[in-house]
Design a protein that fits this description.
5 helices, single chain, mainly alpha
Length: 78
């Protein structure tokens, strides 16, 4: 499954490793590589707001560009 974040990274030709590096360079406490992979691949939907802020800041995008509202709605219906 392609998440919104994965599609953004593909369009911009940014790898997960590069995204991790961008976050690591900007923030004293980066996002873990495993957690970032889980977020990019849609396996982790419940993550800290600060993580979303870090991703959005380095990619210069708004949070709604990343948040998977359809997936969240499915989880809430369970």
């Amino acid at each position: 499954m392609d998440t919104k974040l994965k599609r953004i990274l593909k369009r911009r030709k940014i790898s997960q490793r590069k995204l991790y590096s961008l976050i690591e360079d900007k923030y004293e406490t980066p996002v873990g590589q495993y957690a970032l992979s889980e977020i990019v691949n849609g396996k982790k939907l419940n993550y800290h707001l600060i993580t979303l802020v870090k991703i959005c800041t380095v990619l210069k995008i708004k949070p709604h560009s990343v948040v998977e509202t359809e997936l969240l709605n499915q989880e809430l219906e369970k």
